[in-house]
Amino acid sequence: MKNTLLTFLLLAFARPLCAKHIIGGEITYKYIGNDQYQFFMKIYRDCNGQGAELDNPASITLFRGTTFQRNIQAPLDSSRNLSKPNLPCTETNIDVCVEEGSYSWVLTLPPVNESYTVVYQRCCRNNTITNILNPESSGASYFIELSPAAQVARNNSPVFRSFPPTLICGGFPLNFDHAAVDSDGDQLVYEFCSPLLGGGRTGSDIPGDPNSCAGVVPIPACLSMMTPVQFRVPVYTSGAPLGGNPVVRIDPNTGMITGTPAATVGQFVVGVCVKEYRNGQLLSILRRDFQFNVFDCNPTVLAKIKADTTIAGKQFFIQACGKSTVFIENLSSKQSFIGSDFYWAFNIQGAERRFTEWNANITFPDTGTYKGKLFLKPGSTCADTAYVTIKVYNKPIADFTYAYDTCIAGPVFLRDRSRSEAGAISSWNWQYGDGTTGSLPNPAHVYQTPGVKKIVLNIEDKKGCKADTTQPIRWYPVPPLLIIEPSKYIDCTPTKTEFKNLSVPIDSTYKIIWDFGDGTTGTGISPQHVYKQPGTYSVSVNVTSPIGCKTSASYPNWIKVKQGAIADFDFTPEKPNTFLNTVQFRDLSQFSTRWQWFFSNKGYSNQQNPTFVFRDTGTQKIKLLVANLNNCIDSMIKYIDIEPKVVYHLPNAFSPNQDAVNDAFKGIGYLEGMTDFTMRIWNRWGELIFETKNPQEGWNGKKFNTGREEPQGVYACVVQFKGPRGEPHEMSGFATLIR
């Protein structure tokens, strides 16, 4: 017989699979007399994919030895969609479509001393295969070899008794009979082997001849392309292409495929070869190439228990420490399928006792080990069983002692005094109450901060029983060494010095008294103090803990304070403005020998009493920096407002006689910054005869400057405007018209 290669595709998707085209095939034959053989080929494609339809006809190549003989165009006899298998005890909703195409042809092949090989090559395999490299570029070769021994024997190839199911559940035991039937009664031996490549993508998405050796349909077929696919080793190999636990194997004598495919979602190629022997002589090897769809099934009945330890999802171990009544939580699914068809069975004192509650609550007579089972749907196809082992122990007793120096900061020594029937405690977990933990039986712990520390000890004995205890301790020692770090050792008056307390342990519950050496005292962990007079000062500190422990430290001649410079100044005039913008500055500093003035970033001076002319109005920042012979520096900042001014004057008479002298009545002055200007003029009868909002426009003696000429006389005038800072101004007077 020839060689059969089986390619399994494992997947678990909630949507249709994406495929290129081919997912498998096989070629068999039978002898029909007069040197004639009828060949049968089946090709499988993913009909949910977007790949090409089945070839019709299919181009088959005949070789004698390695020599090309001819091509045969085999028509598509029939096609059908394979049915999805019934997977009992699972809930599935996977759309998988596999189409099978059947071909046949007859060849006259007289016996020769070389093999006849019939080959069909096609690209490409399903592009989502997981266990081989570059599946989208990997074509397939389906062939049968008629060896010289098979020709002499007028042999018939074996035929498989059943087609592999299109769906398999990952993580579920697999039992598939992949045996073949041989009409000649020859011995058949089965094994996993590698699928073979053939063809490529040229002519589809790669330019070139589609019938070349690397083409999508090589015509003629190329023996050189028939090399094994590349598995993703070491996880997958040709001998163990599915992985799994236990690993999926094939029985060499029966062809039974068993094992548990891994729950890993994906697509996997698997090869099965069938070797045919007659009287100990190998006649041939038949190959089949196919893909199995394996997905993540949802079991309708699954026995599961909440346990301390679980082995292989079936053996559940529960420990009960210090109690004889044990609550067993049933996590089995699905209750809608199980209903009331379940029970618990436990061996207690040599007799079986049954319990029918969903969650069992069992009282055991004494400490010891008790074994039981949870039966779901017993006797049915979907039955499942959970194996339970319960160990009842007396609870251990957690205890410890502690010792430490009350007033001198040092380690706290902890000693375990726990007891257990197991004879020894196997693990310790200490929580020291400061956010840190330890695992030694007798640790020594050093705290960084004082306070009431709640120490928790969790223990576990050799039986896995646990216990805990908590004890508080009042840890308020004084620091073994007072460490104080001033922010300044040398400075100028007045100086603010922070005395940073780096001592450990210490917190706000401690009473701390400071003597700053200048006749004043203070409190607090890290106080600040201002030295106002020059001199050398000694500092001391006294610390008392909440439980009365005391310590102190003195620091003689520690802080040196030099006489500092004191910056101050005034200026005249007090209210400068646009027209009064020359300011005289007078130094009022004390203990100063050097001066530096900064005039609003517009100038500077190092004179003691400078004068400065401000060209701009508005707020001006004045900074005086002074220094003395001790190199002490001080500064003073003041702000001067240079007030902007508007000056506006009205005349009292005008003569519009066109002599270019006093021909219009209008005001004059410094008008920069003026806004909202209005001038109105009325005659003696109260009639408005002129109005303007332009301070540069005057009255020419005519009504509104364009009407009748007004008679000589006196007219009332009112002017309103706002100054540069929006301040309102109003002026009134008389305009005497002379003609």
Give a verbal description of the structure.
The protein is an all-beta fold and 739 residues long. It has six domains: 22-295, no CATH class; 300-393, Immunoglobulins (Immunoglobulin-like), CATH 2.60.40.10; 400-475, Immunoglobulins (Immunoglobulin-like), CATH 2.60.40; 484-558, Immunoglobulins (Immunoglobulin-like), CATH 2.60.40.10; 569-642, Immunoglobulins (Immunoglobulin-like), CATH 2.60.40.10; 647-737, Immunoglobulin-like, CATH 2.60.40. It contains two helices and 57 strands. It has a seven-stranded antiparallel β-sheet with strand order 5-7-2-1-18-17-14. A six-stranded mixed β-sheet has the order 21-22-28-27-24-25, with no helix packed on it. A hairpin with a 3-residue loop joins strand 21 (309-311) and strand 22 (315-321). It is flat. Residues 1-19 have low confidence and may be disordered.
Layout of strands and helices, then pairs:
Elements: E1 22-33, E2 36-46, E3 58-64, E4 67-74, E5 76-81, E6 90-91, E7 98-108, E8 116-122, E9 140-146, H1 148-152, E10 159-160, E11 167-169, E12 174-177, E13 180-181, E14 187-192, E15 249-250, E16 256-259, E17 272-278, E18 281-289, E19 293-295, E20 298-299, E21 309-311, E22 315-321, E23 325-328, H2 335-338, E24 342-348, E25 351-355, E26 360-363, E27 368-376, E28 384-393, E29 400-403, E30 412-416, E31 425-431, E32 437-438, E33 444-445, E34 451-461, E35 466-475, E36 484-486, E37 490-492, E38 495-501, E39 511-515, E40 521-523, E41 528-531, E42 535-544, E43 550-562, E44 569-572, E45 582-587, E46 594-599, E47 604-605, E48 611-613, E49 618-627, E50 633-642, E51 647-649, E52 653-654, E53 668-670, E54 675-682, E55 688-692, E56 713-722, E57 728-737
Parallel strand pairs: 11-19, 22-28, 37-43, 52-57
Antiparallel strand pairs: 1-2, 1-18, 2-7, 3-4, 3-8, 5-7, 6-20, 8-9, 10-13, 12-16, 14-17, 15-16, 17-18, 21-22, 23-26, 24-25, 24-27, 27-28, 29-30, 30-33, 31-32, 31-34, 34-35, 36-38, 38-41, 39-40, 39-42, 42-43, 44-45, 45-48, 46-47, 46-49, 49-50, 51-53, 54-55, 54-56, 56-57
